[in-house]
Amino acid sequence: MSGTRGRRLRRGLAAVAVLGLVGGGYAAYAASGAEAAYRTAVAEVGDVEQTLALSGTLTPSGTADLQAGTDGTIAAVPVEVGERVRAGQVVARLDRTALRTAVDRARADLAAARAQLEADEDAQAETVSDASSAQGDSSGSSGPSGSSGQSSPSASPSAEPSSDPSSDPGDTPDPLAALAAQQQAVEAAQSTASAALADARVALTAQTEACADAYEPAPTDPSGDPSDDPSSDPTPEPTPADDACATALAAVQTAQQDVATAQDALQAALEDLTATLSAAIAALGSSSGDQTGDQPTPQTPQTPQTQAPQTQAPQAQTPSSDDTSAAGSPTVTVTAATLARDQAAIDQARADVVSAVQSLRAATVRAPHAGRVASVAVSTGDSVSAGDAVATVVAP
Predict the structure, then answer these.
(1) Helix (H, G, I), strand (E, B) or coil at 374
(2) What is the SS3 assignment for 192-223?
(3) How far is residue 270's CA from residue 334's CA, in Å, rounded to a whole number?
């Protein structure tokens, strides 16, 4: 009896515990359900953007439209449509016979210009050397003499004490070394002036292109009130084209100032060399006059090489006194301006060599990256100009 009562008691306690758990769970659920909130929205289609920040090596991808780099005739097209090519592989090649000839001609012109400059330098050196020899002979042949042809006994001893004992004959500057320095100064100044002129032309071309669309007036609103005072309109804000034009204008002004500075230096170098040559010519004329006595000096015609071309050395002008030659001498003096003209010719010939070599290299069209040939626009024997389409290569 007692055992039956105990089992019933345990069952009752278990039932109470189960009811307590169920009641507590329901109470918790009811409490959380009362505070829960939901947000609803209408679904729609849109774009999702995501940016990834990565680091690594870039490889070419996309389409490359290959063009002819110079004028000429297609000599070979070693690829076909659909063929795979590697980076640097030849896609087309122009006939390079004429281009090689142009390179050889340009190099020959450069060699001839250098030879002309060397010959003119030697001619000037010969003039100065002859003048120095004439002055030495004149000073050596002059001696103390009387009107009767007999020397005075007191003349020779009185001449020695009057000389400066501190003077050293070795301190006399070498006239040929001074001439060479002046020649180099003229040539360097001419090269600088030529380069400055070329830079100024490039800057002017860039400025013309940059200012083509700059400072355009803003379009007017046709719906505006015509009675408005136009002077009350605010100043328009500068556009990117305006800023680019202003920058290009400043570059042109700087280039023009560089040209003026270079031409001033060239003019100074020309004047120094002209003074040296004029002094040498005067010394030769004096020596020739001493030898010919009172015979009249013939008028020497002016050398036509008195002014360098305006496109190369606009300031390379020398006085006409530099163009005279020694009286009675058949030698024509090479002027300082002639030397500047020779250097300008060398600079132009050097630029022609660079241009010819670049054209020769541009005759070979190569794939810029690996890929597949999508199209070929030329065939062997076609005439093309620089910029014409040759082929299209699509990267994998």
Answers:
(1) strand
(2) HHHHHHHHHHHHHHHHHHHCCCCCCCCCCCCC
(3) 12
Helices 175-210 and 240-292 cross at an angle (nearest 10°) of: 160
- Cα 269 to Cα 219: distance, rounded to the nearest angstrom: 55
Q: What is the pTM of this model?
A: 0.62
**383-384 sheet: strands from edge to edge:** 364-366, 90-94, 72-76, 383-384
Q: At what angle do helices 240-292 and 336-362 cross, to 10 degrees?
A: 140
CB 362 within 8 A of CB 76: no
CA–CA distance from 351 to each of 20, 46, 231 (Å)? 104, 59, 54
Please, what's the b/e burial string for 50-66 (b: 16 or more CB within 10 A of its CB; e: otherwise)? eeeeeeeeeeeeeebeb
pLDDT at 230 over 70: no
Q: How far apart are the first and last CA of the chain?
A: 94
- The tens digit of pLDDT for each residue in 171-194 reads 556 888 999 999 999 999 999 999
Distance CA(61)–CA(187), nearest Å, equals: 49
Going by C-alpha positions, the residue among 378, 366, 273 that lies closest to residue 69 is 366
Mean pLDDT of the chain: 76
